[in-house]
Write a structure and sequence with these properties.
Elements: E1 56-63, H1 69-72, E2 79-82, E3 86-90, E4 105-110, H2 112-124, E5 132-134, E6 143-150, E7 153-160, H3 174-191, H4 193-196, E8 202-208, E9 213-220, E10 239-240, E11 252-255, E12 264-270, H5 271-281, E13 290-292, E14 295-303
Parallel strand pairs: 5-7, 10-13
Antiparallel strand pairs: 1-2, 1-6, 2-3, 3-4, 4-8, 6-7, 9-12, 9-14, 11-12, 13-14
Helix pairs in contact: 2-3
Length: 315
């Protein structure tokens, strides 16, 4: 199992993890767990543009590291702030294995003073200048990607191995160390943002969301060649696919791993269809097989945030 690297995120937002296969799920705690993904590239697939909605102001997400492909497919951003004051984060997950079928995404709403306080901190960290930095002293750690809305332009800053107390390259000059430390400070600020908001900034308290949009990746289970995590676990009780559209015809081609791995399709669900699949998923877990028309499938699912198009390239 890979070495655990932990990032500065609040304890309230810790994702507790179970056995080794679940260890690849993103964990929110005081540090980040090292992750891994495969080198496979998604096939081209139609990408819908989300309907007009709130505008993204600031996002923190992880990419790369030691993480199997199937966990990359369900990876959620850790922090997403929108101009209507909506703040989406990963909430706590019970420490069981297998984990739940869907990540626990929470949402709170803050007022303009709260938005301004967060965006000022991001600006002070230098996100408007799009610095890029990689700590080569820490191997296999994920990159932290900050997306900052600078007056309508989304600016991305990438920081590899952004880990408090990590060893730093000996050839870094003072300016590089300052950039790294500023990003660390911002990461810590956002991880404990509840304690840093101005008085009265919270309009709606943090609560788990009921997904309005759901990305569903499906593939036929192959007992002779399971994907690395073993999803689906054919020893688990199966879940019956609840929609009239059969899984055999569901979605568009999304990813081919090669060899004897089954190709994967991807699609977006909304409204009653999304609610029905979410409800069915709650009767099982992340590893549960799904059945439809006498065929057994594996499903990888995650909510989509307001600005996210479904079935895009994996991070």
């Amino acid at each position: 199992m890979s070495k655990i690297f932990m990032l500065e995120f609040s304890r309230r937002h810790t994702v507790a993890l179970g056995l080794a296969a679940a260890a690849s799920l993103l964990a929110l705690g005081d540090r980040a767990r090292a992750q891994r993904h495969t080198g496979s590239t998604p096939e081209a697939s139609p990408q819908a543009t989300p309907e007009a909605g709130p505008t993204l102001l600031l996002r923190v997400e992880w990419s790369g590291g030691l993480m199997p492909m199937e966990y990359v497919a369900v990876q959620m951003p850790q922090f997403s702030l929108f101009d209507d004051g909506s703040l989406y984060r990963l909430g706590p997950t019970i420490a069981i294995y297998p984990p739940p079928a869907l990540p626990n995404v929470t949402r709170m709403r803050i007022n303009q003073a709260g938005i301004d306080a967060i965006m000022e901190q991001a600006k002070q960290a230098g996100l408007e200048h799009a610095p890029a930095i990689a700590n080569t002293m820490v191997m296999d750690a994920p990159a932290t990607i900050f997306t900052y809305n600078d007056n309508g332009t989304l600016v991305k800053t990438t920081a590899g191995a952004l880990i408090a107390d990590a060893p730093l390259p000996s050839d870094w000059d003072a300016a590089t160390i300052d950039i790294y430390n500023n990003l660390l400070d911002l990461q810590a600020f956002l991880g404990g943002v509840d304690a840093h908001l101005p008085a009265g900034a919270v309009i709606e308290q943090d609560m788990p969301i009921e997904p309005e949009r759901l990305q569903v990746v499906s593939f036929v289970a192959n007992p002779e060649q399971p994907i690395p995590s073993g999803v689906p676990d054919l020893n688990e009780p199966p879940i019956a696919w609840p929609l009239s559209t059969p899984l055999a015809d569901f979605g568009a081609p999304w990813l081919t791993l090669g060899g004897n791995y089954q190709p994967m399709n991807c699609a977006e669900l909304t409204g009653e269809d999304a609610a029905a699949v979410v409800a069915a998923s709650q009767t099982g877990n992340f590893n549960s097989p799904w059945t439809d028309g006498g065929v057994t499938y594996g499903l990888l699912m995650r909510p989509l945030l307001p600005d996210e198009a479904p079935c895009g390239p994996m991070r």
